[in-house]
Amino acid sequence: MKNLNRIHLSGLRAVEAVARLGSIKSAAEELGVTVGAVSQQVQKSEAQLGVQLFERRNRLLLPTAHMLAMQPHLTTAMSSLSTAVATTERGREDALTISVAPVFAGKWLVWHLKSFNKAHPGIRVRVEATIDLIDPDTSDVDLCIRVGHGPYPGLNAQKLLNQRVFPVCSPALAEEIRAPADIGRLPIIRDPGQMFSWKTWLDLFDLDESILQDGPTFSDGSLCLDAAIAGQGVFLAWETLAVYAVKSGQVIAPFPQRPATGLGYWLISGKTAPQTKAKRAFESWLPDELQASIGRPKGADEVEVQVGI
Questions:
Q1: How many other β-carbons are positioned within 10 Å of the β-carbon of residue 282?
Q2: Is residue 300 part of a domain?
Q3: Which residues contact 229 (CB under 8 A, 6 or more apart)?
Q4: Which of the residues 36, 99, 131, 234 could staple to 141 if both were Cys, CB 3.0 to 4.6 A apart?
Q5: 137 belongs to a structural domain
């Protein structure tokens, strides 16, 4: 491990957070430091390692091959360190560890935790971003937020929100869309790991998936949204992923219909784990914050559309 002597741990933390969350701003929010501090740590790490970790294009930081090779190992290492620290906090009334999928963490939770922190300044929250379903009865995790069909036998599971989907694209591409069938003339951004298909939305208009064109493919919903923002095509997004991008005008949702996929967001806790003040506060805050943040437009479809997956 002597090779660790030439680079600071704080720099590796910054590099990992930027790569996982997709931006310096989001990394600064998670690490509790300024944007400038994260930027400096990234630059120092690149100098110490002697390689370029990110390619800078305008305001975007795109991971290089070096960073893509490092990221899985860094994320696993940081998660292990975080777990080690959290073992001292389990059951504490003023500490909370939450396990959540990386996309949900980066595109929704990181933007709303400040609301929870303001309401409960005495509670320290640690977010563990992972796609693995952690057992809150046997791990250091207090609460899990997951997307699925439910229920979750042997655990306490509260359904928070139905997952609803809708097409999004850049403002420039939106000018080419007047009717739902117009989407069939544009590139389609795809994530092969999605648990739903375009059929969920197209069925509302008696359209078939065969009208859809080819387009770029990314193995991460966050990258798909970034591609839509960059004007690479139309992406079938979901509310917790795209709500901020829509509100800020980064993407346009050409149609109000948002059919449900049959999946839901669930807040999961252990049956035998201690019920602390911190857990009760988060369990009370999260459902209202989720509902308030979505703000479905007039005419949005509320019908549950079950899809075969």
A1: 23
A2: no
A3: 170, 245, 250, 251
A4: 99
A5: yes
Same domain (yes/no): 38, 97: no
Tell me which residue of 284, 257, 254 sits closest to 269, measured CA to CA.
284
Residue 299 lies in a domain: no
CB 266 within 8 A of CB 160: yes
Question: CB within 8 A of 269, min separation 6: which ones?
Answer: 136, 142, 143, 144, 155, 156, 279, 283
Q: Is the domain of 31 the same as that of 109?
A: no
Digit-by-digit pLDDT tens for the chain (309 residues) are 666 677 788 889 998 988 888 888 888 888 888 888 898 999 999 999 899 999 887 767 788 999 999 888 888 888 777 766 655 555 566 889 999 999 999 899 999 999 999 999 999 999 988 887 778 887 788 999 999 998 888 899 999 999 999 999 999 999 999 999 999 999 999 999 889 999 999 999 999 999 999 999 998 999 999 999 999 999 999 999 999 999 999 999 999 999 999 999 999 999 888 889 999 999 999 999 999 998 766 555 444 433 332
CATH at 142: 3.40.190.10
| Residue located via tokens 């739902």 | 180
Classify residue 308: in a domain, yes or no.
no
Give which of 304, 282, 285, 299 is closest to 127, Cα–Cα. Answer: 282
Element (H, E) at 165: strand 155-168
The residue whose two tokens read 């989001």 is: 26
- Using alpha carbons only, give the angle 128, 134, 140 rounded to the nearest 5 degrees: 65
174 in Cβ contact with 246 (< 8 Å):
no
One domain for residues 24 and 111: no
Q: Are residues 183 and 127 in the same domain?
A: no
Q: Are 45 and 190 in a shared domain?
A: no
Q: Where are the alpha helices (DSSP H) in the chain?
A: 9-21, 24-31, 35-49, 65-86, 102-104, 110-119, 171-174, 199-202, 221-229, 239-247, 277-294
Q: What one-letter code names the amino acid at 14? A: A
Among 55, 85, 115, give the residue marking a domain's end: 85
